[in-house]
Amino acid sequence: MSVARTVDPDQVGFDPARLARVDEHFGRYVDDGRLAGWQIVVTRRGEIAHSATYGLRDREAGLPVESDTLWRIYSMTKPVTSVAAMMLWEEGRFELTDEISRWLPEFADVRVYQKGSALKPYTVPATEPIRVWHLLTHTAGLTYGFMQTSVVDGIYRAAGYDLLPPADVDLATACTAFGELPLLFQPGSAWGYSVATDVLGRLVEVVSGQSLDAFFAERIFAPLGMTDTRWWADDADAKRLAALYVPDPGTGRAVRYDQIGALAHQPPRLLSGGGGLLSTAADYHRFTQFLLREGDLDGVRLLAPRTVRFMTHNHLPGGRDLGELSVGGFAETVFDGIGFGLGFAVVLDPVPSRSASSVGEYYWGGVASTAFWVDPAEEVTALLFTQLMPSSTHPLRSQLRQLVYSALVG
């Protein structure tokens, strides 16, 4: 499968000279060592107007980024899990207002942190049960241990759930643990980036009667022709997998990080609907085109157009934005002027974030600095792949938007 350019940029409204600035700008990140390599794909009206690679997928081995390089997409798994859940919703298997404890009884009697320390927290009963839409919108009150911004994060870490789960834990066991830990806030009252999509993945398993990897493979990847998206890189494809890097605190140069990077070379014990997939630019390009075309790709329909439009509206309580509802901590987005749909951040007003985005653009990214967006108004999609953790190290995403939209002239 290729991600080669399919149309001259000027035929779809891009200025070729201005698009060339994308490669020039991001090339400097590689030339000065801040990134090892990258891959970028920009489309309009379903045609690939720009496709470029630069640098090395594995600096130490001297292997270049190629069109079929495998990338850890981490939280770009979340939209895939959200699509899976909404496919089941379309079948009438649940309603978005249903309590998740109907299928996951470990969440029947959740309690909410109110005060105290991680060692001796004081909790109160939840006044609202966790519902399916809470999982899709990160308003369930769950959190991530690695954020280190609240007492509840500390409780997660003490239970073994930091950046990685305990080595011997599967998805069902993890969800049982999450149900026993206190919530960060009352469900539906705030927004907090969290393990909610992992719980959603478990819900997909229980409702469908399939493991998450089987559901993805049979119901999403095979129909969409996403032949390279998977949970780990076996021996045959190990060399295609890009190495993972972190910034050196002194020099800022990307330094190899095999402590976590090596995990992608073995089957995971926990199938993380929130962050477990590897993919290629070609495969995720097909996923974004499926979204842009409102649920259909090459005659294969997985979702109705109305469902995709519904998913990409702002579902935050009162129509508010993340700036008003976020409890803080890490997220793959800025907050002001940004809402959240069923699995995606959604641009409500681009001005507060000083972005040239369109109203209605939706997107997400991964902790190793991958990112995508879909702009229905301009029929533009964009993909960025690299492997630098954390994604907050450099403003790669905002800079890519700035450069791409500056090249859109027609």
From TrEMBL:
One MF annotation (Gene Ontology) recorded for this entry: hydrolase activity
PANTHER family membership: BETA-LACTAMASE FAMILY PROTEIN (AFU_ORTHOLOGUE AFUA_5G07500) (PTHR43283:SF3), BETA-LACTAMASE-RELATED (PTHR43283)
Keywords: Hydrolase
InterPro entries, sorted: Beta-lactam-related, Beta-lactam/transpept-like, Diverse_Enzym_Activities
Pfam families, per database record: Beta-lactamase (PF00144)
Gene3D superfamilies the record matches: DD-peptidase/beta-lactamase superfamily (3.40.710.10)
Record protein name field: Serine hydrolase
Domain Beta-lactamase-related intervals: 22-402
SUPFAM superfamilies found in the cross-reference section: beta-lactamase/transpeptidase-like
